[in-house]
Amino acid sequence: MLNFSIDARRGSFHLHVECTFASEWTVIFGPSGAGKSTLLRLLAGLDHPTKGRIALDGRALTETSTRLCVPPGHRLTSLVSQQPALFPHLTAAANVAYGLGSLGRVARGRRTDEMLEFVGASDLAARRPQDLSGGQAQRVALARALAPAPRLLLLDEPFSALDGVASDALLARLQNWLRENKVQTVMATHDATDALATSAEVLLLRDGTQAALGPGAEVLASERDRLIGRLQPPLN
Amino acid sequence: MDWQAFALSLRLAAVTTAILLAISVPLAALIVLGRGRWLAALEALATLPMVLPPTVLGFFLLVLLGPRTAFGRGIAALLGHPLAFSFDGLVVGSVIYSLPFAVQPLVAGFSSVDSALVDAARLLGAGPVRLVSSILVPLARRSLVAAIVLSFLHTVGEFGVVLMLGGDIPGATRTLSIVLYDQVESFDYSAADRTALLLLGLSVVALALVYSKTRKPGVGRA
């Protein structure tokens, strides 16, 4: 369970969110500039809130009142962004193995192979990021994020470079894997179809504040009606 | 040709460059990755020797390391000899004088590394040492080569600090720049020509080496 109360200021932008994510899969939905990526960076520990507290399964990760901020690599949290950010001087396999420093060489190799196979990128192991397409790079970035076995996975529009069919297939496989491995997931998106496809709990974010939190079917009812309306042919 | 001075210049430059590398990589990483206003002051301090006249810097160091200050007396007691007018003193002076030439290229190189890569490495558990050694240094290797060569050449050609702090002691503090100065002062222009050519040749070869290593393949100029 992830609960947080965050106050953060970035120039004129003010993010203020206070909620608990209890379900395995939560979607943060909102237009560009609503504060989705800022919120994910704060949850990941890459940025610090002005005031607030973040706790995962009862363990405080950030607590401004006691000046506690667990470093990003020690929060059992992974983040996959729209930009894959693969290390350009390392192969795809070395990228995936980067976060597995605590494992022995053999176990590290086995885990790397396993994760590359999971995302359908086994044949890309020896390639450098500059030789990968956008979709391939996003698959490798996902494998790299999953490899250290995080407890919390943060996804920031991670499949934007994949076509619809590939994205749906990977998303379905990923959801099964995350459920089996008991990984809580928070995905940020501005695409209502992505948000509705996962039948998840949805946090609706507008101008840095929480507009609604609840089942996707309820929170995104108006978005769903809008999408259905677009698919219906106009009446003459 | 004063080969003893030539060897001493190379030795001074090699030792200075090695020390500068050990100081500058973590210092530049701290300036780029750290947070806080004091880092601006730190960067300014590291750049100061670039704008300070070498003779002024040499004079300050001569006073600081000499017997007139408690620091200088303490160092002399510790080493058994004063740092001024010794090879070790030249190394101290050279490290301070060439510091900006090592730090600035590294700060520029580390700053150019995409911050998303730094974030990714931190999320994957990289601490400061691993972050610098496995991400920043490999991705800014051109800047590292530039820092090494600039520090080396700057030390080989340095004159003001060496003269102030080391004087002109053969085998201990007489470098090629001092030899050139002595040759000109005694009107031995043919010997001065050879010494100057040697210093020029060293610089050209080293710079050619830098540009050949740092030039991106396949990038031509119309």
Task: List its salient traits.
heterodimer; A: 236 residues; 2 domains; six-stranded mixed beta sheet; 27% strand; B: 222 residues; mainly alpha; MetI-like fold; 11 helices
Largest sheet, spatial ordering of strands of chain A: 7-8-9-3-10-11
Report the biggest beta sheet of chain B as strand number plus sense, adding barrel if it closes. Answer: none
* Assembly context of the chains: heterodimer
The tally of structural domains of chain A comes to 2
Shape of chain A: globular
User: Measured on Cα atoms, how large is the radius of gyration of chain A?
Assistant: 18 Å
Percent of residues in helices of chain B: over 70%
Q: Pairing-aware structural class of the strands and helices of chain B?
A: mainly alpha
So, CATH architecture of chain B? Answer: Orthogonal Bundle
Spans of chain A with pLDDT under 50 lasting ≥5 residues? Answer: none
**What is the distance, rounded to the nearest whole angstrom, between the alpha carbons of the first and last residues of chain A?**
51 Å
The radius of gyration of chain B is: 20 Å
Shape of chain B: globular
How many separate helices of chain B?
11
Number of strands of chain A: 11
Cα separation of the termini of chain B: 43 Å
Question: What structural class do helix, strand and pairing data of chain A support?
Answer: alpha/beta
Uncertain segments of chain B of ≥5 residues (pLDDT<50)? none
| CATH structural class of chain B | Mainly Alpha
Identify the most extensive interface between protein chains. Answer: A-B, 22 and 17 residues
Q: Count of helical segments of chain A?
A: 8
Please give a structural write-up.
- The complex is a heterodimer of chains A (236) and B (222).
- In chain A, the strands form two sheets. Chain A has a six-stranded mixed beta sheet, sandwiched between helices.
- The mean pLDDT of chain A is 89.
- Chain A is 34% helix and 27% strand.
- The longest helix of chain A is centred in the C-terminal third of the chain and has 17 residues, at 164-180.
- In chain A, strand 5 and strand 6 form a beta hairpin.
- By secondary structure, chain A is of the alpha/beta class.
- Chain A starts with a strand and ends in a 5-residue tail after the last helix.
- Chain A has two domains: 1-76 and 150-236, Rossmann fold; 84-149, no CATH class.
- In chain A, helix 3 crosses helix 4 (134-146).
- Chain A is built from eight helices and eleven strands.
- With 222 residues, chain B is an all-alpha fold.
- Chain B has a single domain (3-214), classed as MetI-like fold (Orthogonal Bundle), CATH 1.10.3720.
- Chain B is 77% helix and 0% strand.
- Chain B is built from eleven helices and no strands.
- Chain B has helices spanning 3-33, 38-51, 54-65, 70-79, 87-111, 115-123, 128-139, 141-156, 160-166, 176-185, 189-214.
- Chain B is globular, with a radius of gyration of 20 Å.
- The termini of chain B are far apart.
- The mean pLDDT of chain B is 89.
